[in-house]
Amino acid sequence: MKLLIVDDGQYVVEYLKHLLDWRSFGIEHVLTSTNSIEAKHILDDNGIDILITDIRMPEVSGIDLLEHIHQSKLKTKVIFLSGYSQFDYAQKAIRLGILDYLLKPVDKEDMEKAIAQAIKSIEAMPKAAAVNWQQFDGLGFLLSLLCETIAKEMAFEQCTGSLDASSFCFFKIADYKEIDEATIRDYNGGLSCFIWRTDQLLAGLVRHEDCKAIAERIANIKLSDEFQLSHTNRVRHQFYLFFHNENMGFADYASIQDTIQLPSMLESEGLRKAIMKRYAQLDNNKLKLLFLMELIASLYKSDSALYELNSIDWIFNELQQPDEVLQQILTAMSQHEKCKKLSNEHTIRMIHDYVEAHLGDGLSLEELGEHVHLHPVYLSKLYKQETGENLSAYISMKRLEKASRLLIESNLHVVDISQMVGYKKTQYFIKLFKEKYGVTPQQYRRQQFNG
Q1: How many CB atoms lie within 10 A of CB 341?
Q2: Closest CA to 325 of 343, 347, 299
Q3: CB 3.0–4.6 Å: which of 127, 168, 294, 340 could bond 260 by disulfide?
Q4: Computed over its alpha carbons, how large is the radius of gyration of the chain?
Q5: pLDDT tens digits for 31-45?
Q6: Which parts of 100-154 are beta strand (E)?
Q7: Is residue 210 located within the same domain as residue 301?
Q8: Where are the alpha helices (H) located in 203-267, listed in sequence order?
Q9: Residue 445 is inside which H or E element, if any?
Q10: 321-351 confidence digits (pLDDT tens)
Q11: Are 252 and 290 in contact (CB under 8 A)?
Q12: Tens digits of per-residue pLDDT, 5-61?
């Protein structure tokens, strides 16, 4: 485990560093800093398990460090120190989830209790379950790190935990050969889900510990600086710097927040117009890149199978020409919309054919969903969206139409016809029939023969 001690007083840092036998608590590395700005970088780059920090410091306070830990989704446990009781600060710290709050001068026994509690809390954290990396959605995972719109919707926390033990680097190889991809797969610890190819580029993530061996075998590979996947801001910074030569900072992400929220309920043509309008409002290349990346992520989330190949090319190759990428995205949306419409029309035809052939059966949403391989709830929404009517209303209409034909073309009793069109309760059938035709089944039959 790693411990970081931060205080603007050098003597305090030295006192705390030698206050306990840290190794007896399983803490192998003790890092210190008297510069709270530097402390942020240490937190980002070193996988710190426990932070002991003064709550009041110049430039960056202990509260600021705690908020940084939350924003960066770090798992660091925090113990605050203060020279005097400051209840307002303590209240905010408690809301943000500090582990303990100690007054200076720190008593050895109190510190021992606080560290023991921190270790107990760390050990109680759920261990990451085994992940099937062969089936893992590596591209979705990368997009969840890079983008705000889907970060909270795509639940990859478990996988991030499984990868915390390693640092990573981005890589790219121009004019790659088949042997280059095979080499990276051999030396990347089974994480083939993080290797992507386009016509011009082989790109992705490799573990930092494997970089030397890979670089010795692939002369033209380029590697980014290392980072940990749990440190979202550093992942984003390295990605844009490495692949698109843009030095993105936290302020850039903050400035795009309002812009990336696209209307979700617009029909497709309206959505495309909204996208073009928002894009036209962006006045620099950084914002265009961020906007397009968020758009790509949203499309990928909506249908990964349709958008995967396009997304890989856009993300690693094409984004350096953002205006062209926007047009490519809009064209792909139109093409995929047409494909989806044809697919939906085929699904509706399958439903109609099945209903026609099984009017005497139960015809539940579950049964129909199984027939067309769709979830019953989604099937119901899809049918309403494509036809403008409820599926139950369509089934009822077809049943009553068949009943009206049987009344004319056969001498079957009303009870038998009711059963043949799927109504086990004859009175309910008669009620529905009268609502549609204005007369009872018997009256309808007489009218047809006497008319």
Answers
A1: 12
A2: 299
A3: 294
A4: 32
A5: 999 888 888 888 877
A6: 100-103
A7: yes
A8: 208-217, 232-244, 250-256
A9: helix 441-450
A10: 899 999 998 888 887 777 666 678 888 899 9
A11: yes
A12: 998 889 889 999 999 999 999 998 899 998 888 888 888 777 788 999 888 787 777
Tell me the C-alpha distance between 235 and 434, whole Å: 67
Structural domain includes residue 335: no
Same domain, 292 and 205: yes
- 3-state SS assignment for residue 1: coil
Q: Domain boundary at 124, 150, 170, which?
A: 124
The residue to which tokens 């099984």 are assigned: 358
Long-range (24+ apart) CB contacts under 8 A made by 146-153 are: 146/235, 146/236, 146/239, 146/293, 146/297, 147/293, 147/294, 147/297, 148/253, 148/256, 148/257, 148/260, 148/294, 149/260, 149/261, 149/294, 149/297, 149/298, 150/297, 150/298, 150/301, 151/232, 153/301
Residue 441, both tokens: 């089944």
Q: Residue 224 has what DSSP assignment?
A: -
Helix boundaries (H) for 223-373: 232-244, 250-256, 268-280, 285-302, 304-316, 322-357, 365-372
Please name the residue ranges forming H helices in 147-249. 157-163, 178-186, 208-217, 232-244
What is the arrangement of strands in the sheet containing 29-33, beginning at the earlier edge strand?
29-33, 2-6, 50-54, 77-82, 100-103
User: H-helix or E-strand containing 170?
Assistant: strand 168-174
Tokens standing for residue 22: 């840290």
Is residue 40 one of the residues assigned to a domain? yes
**Whether residue 179 sits in one domain with residue 72:** no
Order of all β-strands in the sheet with 222-223: 195-197, 201-207, 168-174, 222-223
Coil, helix or strand at residue 273? helix
CA distance 291 to 299: 13
Task: Report pLDDT digits (tens) over 394-420.
Answer: 999 999 999 999 999 898 999 999 999
What 3-state class would DSSP assign to 82? strand
Q: Is 325 helix (H, G, I), strand (E, B) or coil?
A: helix
Bridge partners of 103, per DSSP, are 82
Helix (H, G, I), strand (E, B) or coil at 156: coil
Domain of residue 79, residue span: 2-124
* Residue-by-residue DSSP string for 373-393: T--HHHHHHHHHHHHSS-HHH
**Band (266; pLDDT cuts 50, 70, 90):** very low
Query: Does 327 map to a domain?
Result: no
Query: Are 194 and 302 within one domain?
Result: yes
